[in-house]
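One example copied in:
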Amino acid sequence: MRFSLVILILAGFISLHSCYAPTSHQVGRKHAFPSAGKALQRCQASEALAYRLGREYKVELDIIMGVIRVESNFRDKITSHAGARGLMQVMPSTGRYFKCGVLFHAQDNVRCGVRILKKLLKRYDGNEVYALGAYNGGSGYIRKALREKMVPPNLGYAEKVLRGRSRYRREGCSGLIRRL
């Protein structure tokens, strides 16, 4: 009984994991991003980039997808009211600092966002709430919260990204495109 339960669990994990991993033709390809496509197509194109760059920089695919969903809803040519650009909504000054290339180019933008996220995860010893808070509002938010022993003022942002990550883990792009 225990053996068959383990087999079923492993089989479910393998099929679940393979169901959300991009196909081989998506991973290696430098592609034109479907800016005007449907949300599912944009999510899948983002997934292919996030998968490859997440592996390259050793950042979880799920959290990258959560950030992209919250930041841009998978739109690569979007600019925020504050001036942040692209899929991962990188500020131009941050892009210049990190030598990121063209922020409206999906691959450059996701590479830049993943590098920033990796640096913040390292800075905050893997604490995703602090790293995401710093990604969203700058490290000053987090330094102040830590100094004053308070919850970061943009905790809602981190919660939304983590909710997106969780939904992506369960349902892939089909779940992530629904309202968080």
Observations:
- The CA atoms of residues 39 and 177 lie 6 Å apart.
- The chain has one domain: 36-176.
